[in-house]
Specification:
About 45% of the residues lie in helices and about 5% in strands. By secondary structure, the chain is mostly helical. The chain has one domain. The chain has a two-stranded antiparallel sheet. The protein is elongated.
Length: about 130
């Protein structure tokens, strides 16, 4: 049996151009999801500066404003996912000890969610007032 070389398919030489144009047009139609920028979340993070700890975990809280940082929610309903932080609007000022307890503490997830939700309830109106002034 004799081997033959590679042969082109018997088709129009312009058919490849049509396919390419179709592919390019389909790519152009796709929409990009707008990712939040640093500036979008900076106002929420800046609102936490100088605030007291709103988490106030009993037996854990330092009650110190020197170590207060924005604590993001760990709940998926707020945009939290594997390797993804929750949206910046779902932050609560918390001291370093409470933040560590929320993220790595020994309590159940339900207990941590309850503490965070309670802190957010108290923080939300304060933040809203603070952000209106700025």
């Amino acid at each position: 049996m004799k081997r033959s070389g590679f042969a082109r398919k018997a088709s129009s030489s312009f058919s490849s151009f049509a396919n390419r144009a179709t592919v390019l047009r389909r790519k152009a139609m796709k929409r990009r999801v707008n990712k939040p920028t640093v500036a979008d979340g900076a106002k929420y993070l800046a609102a936490c500066r100088g605030e007291p700890c709103y988490l106030r975990v009993p037996g854990v809280c330092l009650h110190s404003t020197a170590t207060v940082v924005p604590c993001h929610s760990n709940q998926s309903r707020h945009g939290k996912g594997m390797g993804i932080k929750a949206k910046h609007e779902y932050t609560v000022p918390g001291c370093a000890s409470c933040h560590q307890w929320i993220d790595q503490g020994p309590a159940t997830r339900a207990a941590k969610f309850a503490v965070w939700d309670q802190g957010y309830e108290q923080w939300f109106p304060v933040r809203a007032e603070k952000m209106r002034v700025d």
